[in-house]
Write a structure and sequence with these properties.
about 280 residues, eight-stranded mixed beta barrel, 9 strands, about 20% strand
């Protein structure tokens, strides 16, 4: 199971091989205020670049002159980041004014990278408009712990629209000895792939070519609303017979199995009649 930790010098990594295996991306503290630089940041960036682990860098915003703090973050990091850097995050939890946070966000918006804004569940009303008007390249990251026992509890949900939910400060992650902050991707917006992909790298930048035995891929300027539209534009029907044949032909593909498993996790996988037993 993937882990999504956010760390700092308070949470030293003891085994980078385990981090590489278990963490699709890392979020780590870079700066605080206009003078503090986290002592672990440079080493974490170096390991992520060496191992190809996507990473985010955040500033803990002290109250006051948030714009200057965002600029200090970028100035500190710009000479250290490499190809696996994804974006900057604003950690908003020190009673910052909404106008100050907005100025910091407007500055990061001018850069070429992705962004995140981190807020506390109880402070939502203070930053509601900032969150609502954030650019499309900005994810909303929210903290709500509930029992804070290291396990996500669905009866302590985050707000609607949150992309990344920090659900505990008492979590565990292979490769880190201490108890740490853990997050989950909510499925309400940004995907794991989005959090792993730098803005300059198109998330699906390889032009697909037709493969033997497969339908021709969708190419610009063609648009298809759904699978039925895709089939109709190729002069095939989209009824139960054709869909059953297509499903059977593709059932061994990992992405198909993953999609079916996601339906199963949510209780939406239809159970057809006539299924064989395990040992049949």
């Amino acid at each position: 199971m993937s882990k999504y930790p956010d760390i700092s010098h308070h949470h030293p990594v003891s085994d980078w091989d385990k981090i590489e295996k278990n963490c699709p991306f890392i979020i780590t503290k870079a700066t605080q205020g206009i003078s503090f630089v986290d002592s672990a940041m440079a080493g974490i960036v170096k390991q992520c670049e060496k191992r190809g682990i996507p990473y985010w860098l955040y500033v803990y915003l002290n109250k006051g002159d948030e714009l200057a703090q965002a600029k200090f973050l970028v100035k500190t990091c710009e000479g250290k980041i490499g190809k696996y850097f994804v974006g900057y995050a604003l950690d908003v939890e020190a009673g910052n004014t909404a106008s100050g946070v907005q100025k910091a966000m407007d500055y990061l918006k001018t850069l070429g990278c992705k962004m995140m804004i981190y807020t506390m569940y109880a402070q939502y009303s203070t930053y509601k408009n900032v969150i609502k008007n954030r650019p499309t390249k900005c994810a909303w990251w929210e903290a709500r712990y509930g029992l804070n026992d290291g396990v996500y509890r669905s009866n302590y949900p985050c707000h609607d629209g949150v992309d990344l939910h920090q659900f505990t400060s008492n979590g565990s992650c292979p490769g880190i000895s201490d108890r740490i902050d853990l997050n989950r991707i909510t499925g309400q917006g940004k995907s794991e792939k989005w959090f792993m992909t730098p803005k300059e790298v198109k998330e699906d930048n390889k032009v697909a070519e037709k493969k033997d035995g497969c339908f021709a891929p969708i190419k610009s300027p063609e648009t298809c609303e759904d699978l039925a539209d895709f089939l109709h534009k190729r002069n095939f029907g989209a009824g139960e017979h054709n869909l059953a044949l297509i499903a059977a032909a593709n059932c061994q593909k990992k992405k198909v199995k993953d999609a079916l498993f996601e339906l199963a996790q949510k209780g939406n996988l239809i159970k057809p009649d006539g299924l064989n037993k395990k040992d049949d």
